[in-house]
Amino acid sequence: MMRKHSVALVIAVSIGLTLGCAGLSQRCAPTQDSERHEIEYGIVKDIEGNEYRTVTIGTQEWMAENLKTTTYNDGEEIQNVTGRTEWNRIREGAYVWYGNDESAGEIFGALYNSYAVDTGRLCPEGWALPDDDDWDRMLDYLKREHEIENEDKPGGAGNALKSCRQIDSPLGGDCDTREQPRFNSNDTHYGTDLFGFAALPGGYRQSSGVFTGMGEGCLLWNKPGEGSPSRRWITSSQGHITRFERYPQIGASVRCIRE
Length: 259
Description:
The structure is a single chain. By secondary structure, the protein is of the alpha+beta class. The chain has helices at 84-89, 102-108, 114-118, 132-146, 157-161, and strands at 9-13, 37-45, 51-57, 60-63, 79-80, 94-96, 111-112, 127-128, 202-205, 211-214, 217-221, 230-235, 241-245, 257-258. It has one domain (9-258). It has five helices and 14 strands. The strands form five sheets. Strands 1-2-3-4 form a four-stranded antiparallel beta sheet, with helices on one face.
């Protein structure tokens, strides 16, 4: 049986202060004037003992980091498929590190194919992949309580959920960086990370086995349901969160939500 603990701590993040980032832990707060939000953090561990910061948004508790387990929550190992041809042909659960570089996994987590997602055994005990209703509930909360709509504009929900780490971020301080992890520069859109979700652009693996999107976007799997599971895309070039249907051999990131 996996052991899990969740520790809640409430941290008031002042957007007017330069808080800096703890190494490459993707926890960087904006540094210019903006709305102040109280962020409730917690901690959860996966079956391998990897520890993840979690964040409460409305009534939901989300992982604030991408999953990086190489073991299902029942102890079975997940296949690490590095070759391009093998990745395209496999019809079983598999994961890979971006660029086959394990150090990238320490920052951005692992990329999983849909067959691993379909098992329902990726997330820690008591947690699950989000479904469309979970995303809609969060987006409704942002709109209702903070007047943040899921629209392609600077103040859109996608920008509010991105890490502020970006090339030429107008927020300055530790947000303005060229060092990974960070989003690519964009003339219109930049992350503000108002709620601690801290989405980072770890890219994805195409069905052909090619790696792409590092610095550009964060591609997240949805929970399997009727039909095919979809994916959510948070990108440097858009202010909103978009939804895509799945391609089984795509390798994408996972954020879990407490059940």
